[in-house]
Amino acid sequence: MTKREINKRSFSGSKTGFMRKITSFIEGSKDFWVRFRRNKFALLAIVILCLLSLLAIVAPIISPYNPEQMIFDRFMSPNPEHPMGTDHMGRDMLSRMIWGTRISLFVGFVSAGISITIGVLLGSIAGYYGGKIDDLIMRFVDFFLVIPTFFLILLIIAMFGSSIWNIMFVIGLTAWPSTTRLIRGQFLSLKEQPFVEAERALGASDHRMIFRCILPNAIHPVLVNLSFRVGAAIIIEAGLSFLGLGDPRSISWGMMLNTAQRFIRTAWWMAVFPGLFISIAVLSFNLVGDGLNDALNPRLMER
Q1: Contact 301, 35 (CB under 8 A)
Q2: Long-range contacts of 151-159 (CB under 8 A, 24+ apart)
Q3: For residue 239, which phi and psi values (nearest 5 degrees)?
Q4: How many other C-beta atoms are found inside a 10 Å radius of the C-beta of residue 295?
Q5: Do residues 53 and 104 touch, judged by C-beta distance below 8 A?
Q6: Cα(7)–Cα(3) distance, rounded to whole angstroms?
């Protein structure tokens, strides 16, 4: 057999393997969707989150007015021209709510992404290597778990400033312990499985063992946790802004609540609409998390 024929057969085999993986992924996606759509509330939550995400993306296009434009009468109640009324400075509340969607969702996704990334990395290392490395990482996790997270965030924000970037990083850097414990537990239960032992016997490197062999099988609970973490980050940002520790230069739902608390008896709509959007967004993320858990839980898959 010539070298050209060997290369051709090798390419054909790799192509067949790739197509097999694609086919398996498509079939798995179909099975996941069948299980996920059984949860009607999760489906409704997905629709709501898609609408909110679309609203955030096209905010500059669909916003009726400049959110900082002060050209209207102050404290106008909701009416056909201003469906959500105007605030204490004569700014259109609907426009501010649309732009606030962009900031609040951005904070939620970035903060959750930071916490999940840190948690997955540390949990994978702790669960895979065990021993002293595991003990060191878990003592670090325990240290963070005994500290009241919200008060730690307050302290850090007070020390380093309340820019929107600082808020996102602080939330992300304080929310990773739960993910670390979750991934560590998955690794401890999976690393002794036969398929992992087979990879180890073939001489796979630690990097391949962690990221190509074990982590893809341990990531499902993290996807569920990610949904809950986004909702929690939105709540924390709103709480910080409500206490006056948010970024005053950013239009977020929490910052709008901070402004509204001074005029709650004069203009109820200034507090109701931001609070309603926060509640809907957080509830939707939690419902999606429940739906993902139902669809990805191996015990429920057998039903």
Answers
A1: yes
A2: 153/236, 153/240, 154/240, 154/243, 154/245, 157/240, 157/245, 158/245
A3: -65, -45
A4: 22
A5: no
A6: 6
Q: Is the pLDDT of residue 229 over 70?
A: yes
Q: Which domains does the chain have, with CATH numbers?
A: 104-303 (1.10.3720.10)
3-state secondary structure of 86: strand
Sign of CA dihedral 203, 204, 205, 206: negative
213, 195 Cβ separation under 8 angstroms: yes
Looking at this protein, which amino acid is placed at residue 14? S
Residue 153 has pLDDT above 50, yes or no: yes
pLDDT tier at 50 (50, 70, 90 boundaries)? very high
Smallest Cα–Cα separation from 83: which of 103, 104, 62? Answer: 62
233 vs 226: CA distance, rounded Å:
10
Displacement of CA 298 from its chain's centroid (Å):
22
Burial of 45 (0-12, 13-18, 19+ CB in 10 A): buried
Per-residue pLDDT, 205: 84
Tell me the pTM. 0.84
Helical (H) or strand (E) element with 152: helix 149-160
In whole angstroms, give the CA distance from residue 143 to residue 6.
57
pLDDT tens, position by position, 272-281: 999 999 999 9
- Mapping DSSP to helix (H, G, I), strand (E, B) and coil, where does residue 92 land? strand
Q: Which two tokens stand for residue 257?
A: 């609540």
Rounded to whole angstroms, the Cα distance separating 78 from 143 reads: 49
Between 206 and 172, name the one with better pLDDT: 172
| HSE of 31, CA atoms in CB hemisphere, 13 A | 13
Crossing angle (nearest 10°) for helices 220-242 and 177-190? 170
Separation of alpha carbons 72 and 138, rounded Å: 56
Residue 206 vs residue 235, higher pLDDT: 235
